[in-house]
Amino acid sequence: MRFLLHAALVLAVSATAHAATPPARPARLGLCAACHGEDGMARIPGAPNLAGQKLDYLRDALRQYRDGRRDIPVMRAATGPLTDAELDQLAQWFSAQIPSRAAP
Ligand code: HEC
Asked: Could you tell me the distance, in angstroms and rounded to a whole number, from the CA of residue 21 to the centre of ligand 1?
């Protein structure tokens, strides 16, 4: 019984720790930061905030730009050289950012 309780506690603690672990900083973040900010809050007029956006939405959007299904030249250029794994890292990063107050 004591053992079971201990095991349950360890599981609960590690599950919480896992959920709270921020994603690793993507190697390609520099390709996006000038427009979307490292924190996902846009730095230029006309660029959307990405912080806190749904992970699957970001993931799909990035593939759509890269593959030309969303035909926006700046985003095609930014995503063109990236692999699925790199796009996923970026989607996870931006999705995990906490939105702050948008710049006017
Ligand atoms: C030169 C500026 C610029 C750069 C660099 C750039 N973006 Fe964008 N991004 C934009 C603009 C402008 C849009 C809006 C395009 C549209 O109308 O679909 C956009 C749209 C997006 C969207 C879709 C948001 C939505 O709500 O549909 C995502 C996701 C995104 N960018 C991620 C990235 C990532 C990741 C990178 C780096 C690999 C990047 N962007 C680089 C300007 C930029």
From this structure: 25
Instruction: Give long-range contacts, CB 8 A cutoff, 24+ apart: 32-36.
Output: 32/78, 32/90, 32/94, 35/74, 35/78, 36/94
Centre of ligand 1 to C-alpha 11, Å, is: 38
Find the 47 Cα to ligand 1 centroid distance in Å.
6
In Å, the largest CA–CA distance within the chain is 62
Q: How many CA within 13 A on the CB side of residue 97?
A: 24
Cβ neighbour number for residue 52 with a 10 Å cutoff: 14
Ligand 1 touching residue 90 (CB < 6 A): yes
12-52 residue pLDDT tens:
544 444 456 779 999 999 999 999 999 999 999 999 999 99
| Of 44, 58, 45, residue with least CA distance to 93 | 58
Q: Is 75 in the pocket of ligand 1 (CB under 6 A)?
A: yes
